[in-house]
Amino acid sequence: RGGGGGEFAPAPAAGAAAGSPAAPPPPPPVGGPRDGLPTLGFRGEALFSLASVSSSLVVTTRTPDEEAAQRMVFGRDGYLDPSRTSRVARKVGTTVQVTQLFAALPVRRADLIKRSRDQRQKLVKMLQGYCVLCRGVRIHVADVPSAGGGGAKRTREVMQTSERSKSFRDTLTSVIGSKFAAGVDPFQVDRTDA
């Protein structure tokens, strides 16, 4: 859940009489409202974009002060589907699951499938950059096979970092491997003028 987001307080329904039960407003879309209330910023924009071009966006998250995680399913319109929200067991952290990316855009999906190897390589390189720079954060990237197609397919680990990484070298080693990291010379960055 990290980010600038806060809890959204529902406003009273317009025209509701004092003391009468008012129907709650619909939940805000993934990106949050644009009227000055707290939002998830660029994270919310990214989640909204993913929701709008995929068949399903599921966010499962748990903070250290919660006993159970929240599993939230968002529709293509970016709104939370309250009927599909549930409490689940999981460790502290957040998982974003996107299924059938570009399902709403068949031509773009066909292009993605045709160039999936190149697109996957670009995505992995970008994620490696985030992984290397985010020391003390656990990032786990895996290829998860689709349910269809038959045959026993296994989830394949792509990369993983540990929240216990204390140094840049530890994080670099977990992302690109010890053999490559052994060839990297140490360096210092002077940030006194920054």
The gist of it:
With 194 residues, the chain is of the alpha+beta class.
Describe the structure.
Mean pLDDT is 77; it is low at 1-20. The relative contact order is 0.09. With 194 residues, this protein is of the alpha+beta class. It has 5 helices and 6 strands. The protein has helices at 41-53, 106-114, 116-133, 168-176, 178-182; strands at 56-62, 69-74, 86-88, 93-99, 140-143, 156-160.
Please give the structural blueprint:
Layout: H1 41-53, E1 56-62, E2 69-74, E3 86-88, E4 93-99, H2 106-114, H3 116-133, E5 140-143, E6 156-160, H4 168-176, H5 178-182
Antiparallel strand pairs: 1-2, 1-4, 2-3, 5-6
Helix pairs in contact: 3-4
Shape: globular
- The strand line-up of the biggest sheet is 3-2-1-4
As a percent range, the share of strand residues is 15-25%
Total number of β-strand segments? 6
Instruction: Spell the H/E element sequence.
Output: HEEEEHHEEHH
Instruction: Quote the distance from N terminus to C terminus.
Output: 30 Å
Question: Main beta sheet: strand number and arrangement?
Answer: 4 strands, antiparallel
- Tally of contiguous helical segments: 5
- Report mean pLDDT, rounded to a whole number: 77
